[in-house]
Amino acid sequence: QTMAFVPLFIFTTAATIGFTLLAKERSDARLADSEEKYRTLVERASEAIAIIQDGRFVFANPRLGELIGTAVEDIIGRPMADFIWPEDLALASERHAARMAGLSTAETYDLRVADGTGAARWVAVSSSLIQWRGRPASLGLLTDIDDRKRQEARVAELLADREALLREVHHRVKNNL
């Protein structure tokens, strides 16, 4: 009787192995598809994406490298303070520390970063607390708003000039009366 179950046992074992291999193949295909979607999304994003852990960059997409003017390989491992404009460093550090401590802080704010030429470049930062490799980290999305800030400064300058001109005209009219 034992010999009658041997073929059944071999068939069952072979079927189980085949089913396991088929499931693994499907799982690998889904993983490859998911990775391709992720890579396309992150590498082609118009926003700079960064992950900061322990005050250092642990991930950066190509757009961040373009924005800062530094190769992505040269960004990874460096402190975030290396790329923030000195006058805005206190703001960024304060917000980052509060976020890491789990405190409520503004998720979106504007600050300047130092680009590859050493000039300031305005960015809108949107950040949130995430888990990265089992530890807390900060996910930041940076949008280049340098042109908008320049236009705002120009409009403010033109407005100040018009107000000065209006005061002068008012003064002259008053003197003539």
Key phrases:
single chain, alpha+beta, five-stranded antiparallel beta sheet, 5 helices
Give the averaged pLDDT, no decimals: 89
| DSSP summary, beta strand count | 5
Low-confidence stretches: none
Which overall shape is indicated by the principal axes computed on the Cα atoms? elongated
Oligomer designation: single chain
Strand count, sense and barrel status of the largest sheet are: 5 strands, antiparallel
Helix content: 40-55%
Q: Which sequence of strands runs across the widest sheet?
A: 2-1-5-4-3
Query: Number of helical runs?
Result: 5
Beta-strand percentage range: 15-25%
Which structural class do you get from the secondary structure elements? alpha+beta
Radius of gyration: 29 Å
* String of helices and strands: HEEHHHEEEH
Give the termini distance in whole angstroms: 126 Å
In short:
By secondary structure, this protein is an alpha+beta fold. The protein is built from 5 helices and 5 strands. Strands 2-1-5-4-3 form a 5-stranded antiparallel beta sheet.
Written account of the structure:
With 177 residues, the chain is an alpha+beta fold. 55% of the residues lie in helices and 23% in strands. The chain has a five-stranded antiparallel sheet. Strand 1 and strand 2 (56-60) form a beta hairpin. The chain starts with a helix and ends with a helix. The mean pLDDT is 89.
